[in-house]
Write a structure and sequence with these properties.
Elements lengths: L5 H14 L6 H12 L12 H23 L4 H10 L5 H8 L3 E2 L3 E5 L2 E10 L3 E9 L17 E5 L5 E4 L1 E2 L7 E6 L8 E7 L2 E2 L7 E2 L4 E6 L1 H5 L2 E4 L3 E3 L4 E10 L4 E9 L1 H6 L8 E9 L4 E5 L10 E10 L2 E8 L8 E20 L8 E5 L2 E12 L7 E11 L2 E10 L5 E7 L2 E4 L10 E4 L8 E5 L9 E12 L4 E5 L1
Antiparallel strand pairs: 1-3, 2-3, 3-4, 4-8, 5-6, 5-9, 7-8, 9-12, 10-11, 13-15, 14-15, 15-16, 16-20, 17-18, 17-21, 19-20, 21-30, 21-31, 22-23, 23-24, 24-28, 24-29, 25-26, 25-30, 26-29, 27-28
Helix pairs in contact: 1-3, 2-3, 4-5
């Protein structure tokens, strides 16, 4: 091609305009250029004017580009949104953003060291930021495992004042692009966000890294998304039999999600069971359902096969005994009534339940009932310390069937001389005997009997097995499943 020729310059501009947003493999681009340059004017029949055959060649080249690139094309973010909507747990927030025209194209295309980073779709509202990032190699193939985020690479979200709000992470879910997301516990209050990518290293642990510059930055105007925000004040309050008052506060509807807020407050008797800061260690269990009793979403249920669309949760201590809770869901019904149902809750409380046995006499498993929990000790042994400092510690192997939660429980151990030791836990747990139509039953199974893999209490600094061992549960993560309250939300 003679780019000094004015016609050829026009053709070049056309081709560049058409391919600027496409990732054309190097081999295809080279073949296209060779194909154009190989067309000799001498071989063109005289009845075709100079301009006509040149434009015909350009059309042929463009057809070649589009056809070849289609081989390497991947589903767009818009198609992914619809595929997400079609799954069992639909992302209605993303679909709504698309319908409102809030899927932005930042036109990011950064090429270095033979790799091209592309961002054509991003969605942002006060709830979350979602972005589709693609990374193409020299052959135009998307490489799903080349980009790792962490210390070397990061994508940061900043507000209009340049304040860092959060970093994005790869949600996985699809091989077609890096599904980048960031969720906000508190809705954003800014008219603009800036997404900055600091990408300087490609490669995973199994291959040499590639150093380069794939940095990018773009802004998203938040004003239109902010205008879609609607606030609904809620009403309803209930006090459980064991002294927790739950009060519904507010519902905030945003483009990609719905924020549900409520408050809990413990009475004096409940606070006495949770002195110091124990009362702050709480967990709520509830769900939403339609007026036809069909489940919408569940939070922390003891249920088999529950619906889950919780994106973020947060809580703040307002005053002594009082906590403000925030839950952000992908959606909640807007034009039809539905119910909020409180299923249960946990609070860390003082306990003095204990397990006492003589390890040398533990010939067969020994069972203990502590409150509503069942523990079966199956053995003791000396193991290398988890601190990996060359010392040893005592391991107590057991299986547990726990009615109470185990996240916030605290144990101490005492040897024959009464010396106290710290205790940690190690092992796998699962929910057992849960039902498909009940949110409160079932127990936490500690250890796996089928695989003969018990759970372990690890007693640090106890480098010998004592004649007698006493295990004391000083804090129980008490599970209350007796609330009887639901509220119709319209």
């Amino acid at each position: 091609m003679n780019f000094h020729d004015p016609v050829d310059r026009e053709i070049k501009q056309l081709l560049n305009a058409k391919r600027k947003d496409l990732i054309i493999p190097d081999t295809i681009q080279l073949a296209m250029e060779n194909a154009l340059s190989s067309i000799s004017e001498q071989k063109v029949k005289k009845k075709y004017p100079h301009k006509k055959w040149r434009w015909a060649a350009a059309a042929l080249a463009l057809f070649f580009i589009l056809g070849a690139v289609s081989i390497y094309s991947v589903p767009t973010f818009g198609e992914m949104i619809r595929s997400l909507f079609a799954k069992d747990s639909p992302d209605i927030g993303l679909l709504r953003a698309q319908e409102l025209g809030l899927v932005h194209n930042p036109h990011i295309k950064v090429k270095d060291k033979g790799y091209t980073l592309v961002i054509d779709e991003a969605v942002a509202d006060p709830t979350r930021v979602t972005m589709a990032l693609q990374l193409f190699d020299k052959k135009g193939k998307h490489d799903r495992h080349k980009l790792l985020l962490g210390d070397l690479n990061n994508i940061t979200i900043k507000d209009a004042n340049g304040k860092a709000l959060d970093t994005m992470y790869d949600m996985g879910y699809t091989n077609d692009f890096y599904y980048m997301v960031a969720f906000f516990n508190e809705p954003l209050e800014t008219d603009k966000i800036t997404i900055e990518g600091n990408i300087g290293t490609l490669g995973n642990k199994n291959e040499p890294s590639i150093e380069g510059d794939w940095n990018f930055s773009f802004d998203i105007d938040m004003r239109e998304a902010n205008q879609q925000t609607k606030i609904e004040e809620l009403s309803g309050s209930y006090t459980t039999p064991h002294g927790m008052t739950v009060t519904l506060k507010r519902l905030t509807r945003m483009v990609q999600g719905v924020r549900f807020e409520l408050e809990t407050e413990l009475n004096d008797a409940a606070m006495a069971r949770s002195p110091g800061g124990l009362w702050e260690k709480q967990m709520l269990s509830f769900h939403f359902e339609t007026i036809e009793n069909e489940e919408i979403h569940s939070v922390n249920p003891r249920k088999m096969g529950y619906m889950d669309s919780l994106m973020a949760t947060d809580h703040t201590v307002i005053e002594e005994g009082k906590i403000r809770w925030s839950y952000i869901f992908k959606y909640l019904p807007e034009h039809e009534p539905y119910r909020f149902i409180l299923d249960g809750y946990t609070v860390a409380e003082t306990d003095d339940s204990r397990i006492s046995f003589r390890p040398s006499e533990l010939i067969e498993p020994k069972s203990f009932q502590i409150l509503t929990d069942h523990v079966e000790v199956v053995g003791t042994s000396l193991e290398e310390s988890q601190n990996r400092d060359g010392t040893y510690e005592t391991a107590v192997s057991f299986y547990g069937e726990m009615d109470n939660e185990i996240r916030n429980e605290e144990w101490k151990a005492f040897d024959s001389a009464g010396k106290q030791y710290d205790v940690s836990k190690r092992g796998a747990s699962s929910l057992e005997d849960a039902l498909v139509d009940n949110w409160r039953e079932g127990f936490i199974s500690m250890g796996d009997r089928n695989m003969q893999q018990p759970y372990e209490y690890r007693i640090s600094r106890l480098d010998h097995i004592p004649d007698e061992l006493i295990m004391v549960r000083q804090v129980v993560d008490k599970w209350y499943k007796d609330p009887d309250w639901s509220v119709l939300l319209k």
